[in-house]
Write a structure and sequence with these properties.
single chain; two-stranded parallel sheet; globular
């Protein structure tokens, strides 16, 4: 089996490579800026831009399966940049895959659980390309499988752990609407387990799967307080309303366009942190026989060990 994995330097992509390399299958990992530190005889890394057709045309033509993790994933930024990478880049990759008879494309999508707003370019473009992929499947029998992860976390997670730790340590973490939003926690190893169940599985072609840990009981308030406890920091976070957070976030995003200063909060982040919509993994359980192996409690035990090792706590 020969894999092409885009976004190989990302949190999800690197964990997929870590798992698949154990089978000694040939893996080509594409990265855009920073080369992954993974070293293995079966893994080759290639630097390039998936939105560049010339670069894509230079790839080996004997790929069996593409695992497409690459995306511009931020809660702010220019619309054109999101479109160029998330939509155009994926279309270029799919066109190349069709030309070279790739047997399966596993595309990492996005669960559309938050409300739409005019700064939500990430969710908007991920939905656009997912609709395009579904059309390709219906019209051209494109062998595509779509995986939609929840909030992916675990040791070293840049968004849902490292960033949270930094905010807590610098007393900059705020709850929004008391932190009652649902944390759709998706432990990284559970996600990779789900991915493996789709590889070469004909039942998954033309189908999309929501993947989380299947637990809707954990709020962001609880998760943030659990992390703070591991850091030995106060969990008495300040709180602001959703309405105020969206207003502040809108101003910060607009200022970013002028000053390039990173927003501390955005409308999209506010929607995610206050989300009350539940996500079902029923289809994944039924078709993939997916059963999350790592519970929230077990995941937090692993995270606590990582925090203590990384931050030199006793």
């Amino acid at each position: 089996m020969k894999y092409l994995i885009t976004g190989s330097a990302g949190y999800i992509g690197s964990h997929i490579i870590d798992r698949l390399k154990q089978n000694n299958d040939e893996i080509i990992g594409l990265y855009h800026i920073h080369k992954p530190k993974i070293e293995h005889k079966s893994v080759q890394f290639v630097k390039g831009d998936i939105s560049n057709p010339t670069f894509i045309d230079q790839l080996p033509t004997d790929i069996d399966i593409i695992i497409h993790c690459a995306a511009f994933m931020k809660d702010y930024g220019s619309k054109s940049l999101f479109y160029n990478i998330n939509v155009k880049g994926t279309e270029i990759l799919v066109s190349w895959a069709q030309k070279h008879d790739v047997s399966q494309i596993i595309h990492f999508g996005h669960i559309q659980y938050e409300s739409s707003n005019w700064f939500n370019y990430y969710s908007d473009t991920k939905k656009v390309i997912e609709d395009i992929l579904v059309d390709y499947f219906k019209k051209d029998a494109l062998p595509v499988t779509i995986i939609r992860p929840g909030n992916v976390f675990g040791p070293g997670s840049p968004v849902w752990l490292v960033q949270i730790i930094s905010l807590i340590q610098n007393n900059k973490l705020y709850l929004i609407d008391q932190g009652k939003g649902i944390f759709h926690h998706t432990y990284i190893e559970n996600l990779v387990d789900a991915l493996e169940l789709t590889i070469g599985n004909k039942k998954t072609i033309g189908t999309s799967f929501n993947i989380t840990d299947g637990d809707e009981s954990i709020t962001f308030q609880k998760y943030f307080r659990d992390v703070a406890s591991m850091l030995g920091k106060s969990a008495d976070f300040k709180d602001i309303s959703k309405k105020k957070a969206i207003r502040i976030g809108t101003i910060m995003v607009l200022l970013h366009k002028l000053t390039r200063i990173k927003p501390m909060i955005t409308p999209l982040a506010t929607e995610i942190l206050t989300n009350q919509n539940k996500v079902t993994i029923t289809k994944a359980k039924k078709i993939l026989q997916y059963v999350p192996k790592i519970s929230y409690l077990q995941a937090m035990e692993k995270i606590e060990r990582w925090i203590h090792d990384t931050y030199n706590f006793g």
